[in-house]
Amino acid sequence: MSPSTTATSPVAEPVSPVTETAPQTSALPANLAIFTPVYLKFLNSRLARLSPEKILEWALISLPNLYQTTAFGLTGLVILDMLSKICKQQYKETRPEDRDPSAPIHSVPLIFIDTLYHFDETVELANRAAKHYNAPMHVYKPQSCESREDFEKQNGERLWETDADIYDYLVKVEPARRAYQELNVQAFITGRRRSQGASRGSIDIIELDMTSTPPMLKLNPLASWDYDTVWAYVQVNQVPYNPLIDKGYKSIGDFHSTQPTLPGENERDGRWRGQGKTECGLHKDYLRMRSSYVAAKKRKITLDASKVSVEADPLA
Fold first, then answer.
1. Among candidates 23, 97, 19, which has minimal Cα distance to 301?
2. CA 282 to CA 255: how far, in whole Å?
3. Which of 61, 131, 197, 204 is deepest in the core (most CB within 10 A)?
4. Between the CA of residue 106 and those of 18, 85, 96, 109, 237, what are the distances in Å?
5. What is the C-alpha to C-alpha distance for residues 313 and 115, in angstroms, rounded to an integer?
6. What number of other Cβ atoms are within 10 A of residue 310's Cβ?
7. Model pTM?
8. Catalytic-role residue among 179, 280, 289, 294
9. Are 274 and 286 in contact (CB under 8 A)?
């Protein structure tokens, strides 16, 4: 089951997973050249004084080609709700002669990475939330795959167990990068918060990802909020949310690596429990993820070749 979309992604030609070299860090495009480290530090010091709504208002008039990437967790849904209200208000304040009748009122399109291993409840929520907020949504799946069966035919079953680096790259990192390139994304909004801990514990409100080609701005408008504040907003504003939340799932990813959070645990402790892992790859250094993927593919090819050799000559 896949959520309906107002925009779809064309299937790109497969890229050789082994021979292609990782893209090199590139210079800032002209319209992002102002976002130097000094200016970013200044912006973060000022944005830290603002509410998330004010941060989003600033982003809507300041950041080019702005999208929201979301898997429809609570924080992403809060941001979606805030954006909906801001966009509607901005539309009302726009002079009728300046309105573009062909443009959606919700002016920040969504990017949803359908890994093919989401809970059914997550996919249903993606469809429901996009419709509820009348938000354009672009759905991206693993390369040349429309179903879980397609993916497993190409890569085998339970790839997340046999090689997590390859799995993360194929179902999350590559589709996201394809989305950014095809949609010409230059800035995107995330639902990351410092209270989620690990590598998120010290994130800024606005960051510059220099590992992408071209570099992109990353906005974390709820960076300073904790889980209880997010949940309170959801309840007060009647934001649609995943029914798995009511079953103890505070952070929800792929069904095979997500468990309910236990009392006293951090909200993300139910993800990859016991694996010493805190991120899926979407918010890691892309160049390192690409290198890990290439190295893993080479190991797999070597291993498969040795198995074929043994089968062909068991006495060798």
1. 19
2. 17
3. 204
4. 40, 9, 16, 7, 18
5. 39
6. 11
7. 0.82
8. 280
9. no
